[in-house]
Write a structure and sequence with these properties.
Elements: H1 3-8, H2 19-28, E1 33-34, H3 40-43, E2 59-60, H4 63-83, H5 96-99, H6 105-113, H7 116-128, E3 143-144, E4 150-154, E5 159-164, E6 167-172, E7 176-182, H8 183-190
Antiparallel strand pairs: 1-2, 3-4, 4-5, 5-6, 6-7
């Protein structure tokens, strides 16, 4: 079963129980934030009539990737609201049925694929291990490019490698401009 099915094809009552998927993501991109100190006043709080702590964990895995993902979701939110304006009365206040609608799944998936940490992981693989390493002679820094693209430019080969809205593109003198297809396919390949 592919990653998207793991996330979206859960039984209806378990729609918010995608913990296994998100745990794998947070462990794969492990920016660990230690909350000790930040939660000093809360760390020792327990539930009434119990000894278990309210906040049992003081370390968060994958905080950076989650922040990046929420930025991508915020960027796509207005677009989705415009596209679905017939069913969403107030774009600033989506009802729960609209939030859980399967019509949002592709947008959520594309936001995840556009998350910089995930795209950067793929770019690193393309530079180091793919059959296209000759186009990417040295490690470059990813950045936002024009027209909503996020990618890397390799001056030695005058090549751009970039993602946008769930697709992967390359632009080089040798290959011209090519849509390499769904970024999901490439990301899965880079993780095998």
């Amino acid at each position: 079963m592919n990653q998207k099915n793991t996330l979206f094809n859960l039984p209806p009552k378990r729609g918010y129980d995608a913990g296994i998927f998100w745990r794998r993501i947070s462990l794969k991109y492990p920016s660990v934030v230690n909350l000790n100190g930040f939660l000093n006043s809360l760390e020792e709080n327990t539930y009434l009539c119990e000894t278990s702590k309210i906040i049992p964990v003081t370390k968060l895995d994958g905080l950076d990737i989650m922040k990046e993902f929420f930025v991508e979701l915020d960027a796509i939110d207005d677009k989705v609201a415009r596209l679905r304006s017939a069913t969403i009365r107030d774009p600033s206040n989506w009802g729960e049925n609209e939030q859980k609608s399967p019509l949002n799944n592709e947008y959520i998936w594309n936001a995840l694929l556009n998350t910089p940490s995930i795209v950067n992981n793929f770019f690193d693989w393309a530079e180091e291990e793919s059959e296209y390493t000759s186009f990417f002679p040295r490690k470059e820094i990813s950045k936002k490019l024009s027209d909503g693209f996020y990618g890397r430019y390799y001056s030695e080969t005058q090549t751009y490698l970039a993602g946008k809205e769930g697709n992967l593109y390359i632009l080089s003198p040798e290959l011209g401009y090519k849509d390499l297809g769904f970024l999901e396919r490439w990301i899965i390949r880079s993780n095998q």
